[in-house]
Amino acid sequence: MSEMMIHNSTECNAAVNSIRDALYVLSGKWKLPLIVGLREGPKRFNEIQRALVDITPKVLSKELRELELNDFVIRRVYDTVPVTVTYELTPYSATVDPIIAALREWGAQHRNRIVESRRTEQSEIEVKVID
């Protein structure tokens, strides 16, 4: 285990505020999948929607707008007929790469733990039934 850290209320409040800010920007079911999906390069709205499968157009529009407001996504409008609109990641969006990597690693570890725990529970139940 890690060493116990001594905290003061100012540092704790600053830490909580920083975490709130991060969660405000990245929270929800779709923000991180959108960022990961746009890593391949610019995509049109319908391409993004097809890639994320279950997202509704209304929610996708809202999420893209929020990511744009927080400097993660650039919306480009091209003067074509019909008008073409693409969305792409900003260089700033790469700052969440370590967070995404850590979440991916932790998520895989957590899933393995839960699956193993359920296997163990099932084995114990089967042993009790046989006895």
Automatic annotation (TrEMBL):
Q: Which residues form the HTH hxlR-type domain?
A: 12-115
PROSITE patterns recorded for this chain? Answer: HTH_HXLR
What does the UniProt keyword field contain?
A: DNA-binding, Transcription, Transcription regulation
GO MF annotation list: DNA binding
What does UniProt give as the signal peptide span? none
| Alphabetized InterPro entries for the sequence | HTH_HxlR (IPR002577), WH-like_DNA-bd_sf (IPR036388), WH_DNA-bd_sf (IPR036390)
Q: Answer yes or no on keyword DNA-binding.
A: yes
What is the recorded name of this protein? Helix-turn-helix transcriptional regulator
Which source organism?
Answer: Mucilaginibacter pallidiroseus
